[in-house]
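Fold it.
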Amino acid sequence: MSERGNRKRVTGIVVSDRMEKTVVVEEEVQVRHPRYGKFIRRKLKRMAHDEGNAAKVGDFVEIEETRPLSRKKFWRVVKVIKSGDAVTTKRAGR
């Protein structure tokens, strides 16, 4: 029997839930500029598998790295940390 090793876990906000059993999670990271040393905010979008379609737009979720499930899907939703409202996200105004 093999256990799951140390898999990466990140948190982010769900920005899309239009697909079946898939959500798009946006993670905000800070990276250091190579020359000037200033920290810059970058956003990464990751597609994650959501078996029960539990996560909705605006929810704060935790996702975990997994085996490739499709061409772009390498993550799965572990849990919904905080249920949010679509109005609270920046993308709701578009």
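The chain has a mean pLDDT of 89.
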